Amino acid sequence: MCEAWEPRRARQCRQEDAEEVRNKEQANFCDYFRPRPGAFDTKGAAAEQQSRDQLATLFGTGGTSPDTATQSAADVLFRSKPKQDR
Question: Model's pTM, two decimal places?
């Protein structure tokens, strides 16, 4: 990440005269690029992966199925209410 990167700006850069980088997946060049100290946070990456694993478990994706307690809670929450006879 760059020190000047600002996702809320139109060209996502604080520098007014910087060229827009349209394809961020390919190599590009910017005169204003300065690496942001601590751009890669291993704690944040670990927390993100843990959250993704919990979501995968909850929704049954990623090869694992939800545990019984989670499935039961979901069944109670989303089961349709019985129709009352008039």
Answer: 0.38
CA Rg, the chain, in Å?
A: 23
User: What's at 32, amino acid-wise?
Assistant: Y
Contact 30, 21 (CB under 8 A): yes
Reported confidence tier of residue 26, pLDDT bands at 50, 70, 90: confident
Give the residue-averaged pLDDT of 70-84. Answer: 69
| 48, 39 contact by CB (below 8 A) | no
Is-contact 43 34, C-beta < 8 A? no
By the 8 A CB rule, do 67 and 57 touch? yes
Q: How do the domains of the chain map onto residue ranges?
A: 1-54
